[in-house]
Design goal:
It is a single chain. By secondary structure, the chain is α/β, with parallel strands linked by helices. The chain folds into three domains: 151 residues, Rossmann fold; 38 residues; 99 residues. Helices cover 53% and strands 8% of the residues. The radius of gyration is 20 Å and the shape is globular.
């Protein structure tokens, strides 16, 4: 899916679909404008095995859509910064052959948190890109990147859609009234992600973020602190189900990355495998278990006992 509005970007991406996929793309725009959505779309174009990429039906598109494609790797900061060590690991890995298709995609989240050393480490691989590898850098502002890195990338700048386009989209994914949507969009200056945040009262992409936080919490927080974070979702069945799915995605992502780098977040590979199995079991019981807080308590104690 392409971000709403942004017709200029749609036509650039259409050119990618005709086979001219650049090896480095920088997606620029503030949080909530759809950088991740666009990155996912471009990644699907790269790894699609259908006749008209992205076909949305082939194994490549399917795996990419659920975040499990082995040749689509997301690199994100462990803390506030994307470190030079992480970029060096990425660089080594980029020269290995893809697993499923003839292309590999690296989605580098928060690329503007790299310091100059990390950016220069990345620059080396952008200057001599391995065949078939596509780097997608996500940044709030391209100005925060070194000019040498910028000059190696095709930059696509996302902008908020028109009020009508944004309102139509939000109406299609929520049950909010037209007046509520209009007020939220006015406050958010038509930024759909920010408006959805205000309308839901929860974080944008909040569940994905929460899943990452819970994994970090295993060694750093008490069960009680974890439960406090889960409390706002107590009455939201769909959110609970999505949270467990996000946890599975995040754990499988960490396991995949563990094939070539150290396991992050202070967990061992064996712990992550146990966590995966435990979350699968919880997901099964989530559908039948009426007591949500009990489910959350089980989740926290399971994760803490790893
Ligand atoms: Zn496909």
């Amino acid at each position: 899916m392409l971000p709403v509005g942004n017709k200029n970007i749609a036509s650039r991406v259409a050119a990618f679909q005709r086979g001219k996929l650049p090896h480095a793309i920088m997606l620029e725009g503030e949080r909530g404008l759809g950088k991740h959505t666009l990155a996912q779309h471009i990644a699907s174009i790269a790894v699609c095995q259908g006749a008209s990429a992205p076909c949305g039906e082939c194994r490549g598109c399917h795996l990419c859509g659920v975040g499990s494609h082995p040749d689509v790797v997301t690199v994100s900061p462990d803390g506030k910064q994307l470190t030079v060590d992480k970029i060096r690991t990425l660089r080594q890995n980029a020269y290995l052959k893809p697993t499923l298709c003839d292309r590999k995609v690296y989605i580098v989240e928060c690329a503007d948190t790299m310091n100059n050393s990390a950016q220069n480490a990345l620059l080396k691989v952008l200057e001599e890109p391995p065949t078939g590898v596509v780097f997608i850098l996500l940044v709030d502002s391209a100005d925060s990147m070194l000019p040498t890195v910028r000059s190696r990338c095709i930059t696509l700048s996302l902008t908020p859609p028109s009020r009508d386009e944004a309102a139509e989209y939000i109406a299609s994914v929520t049950d909010k009234s037209a007046a509520e949507i209009d007020t939220a969009l006015a406050d958010a200056k038509n930024n759909i992600g920010v408006a959805l945040l205000a309308l839901s009262g929860k974080n944008v992409g909040g569940l994905a973020h929460l899943a990452s936080e819970l994994l970090l919490d295993i060694n750093n927080s008490t069960s009680y602190e974890m439960l406090v974070k889960l409390k706002p979702y107590e009455k939201d069945r769909a959110a609970i189900d999505s949270l467990l799915s996000e946890l599975l995605l995040r754990i499988s992502h960490l396991l995949r990355e563990g094939c070539y780098t150290h396991i992050k977040e202070g967990l061992t590979r064996a712990q992550l495998i146990k966590a995966y199995d435990a979350v699968v079991e919880l997901k099964k019981s989530a559908n039948s278990n009426a007591n949500t807080m009990l489910l959350f308590t089980n989740l926290c104690s399971t994760l803490k006992s790893l």
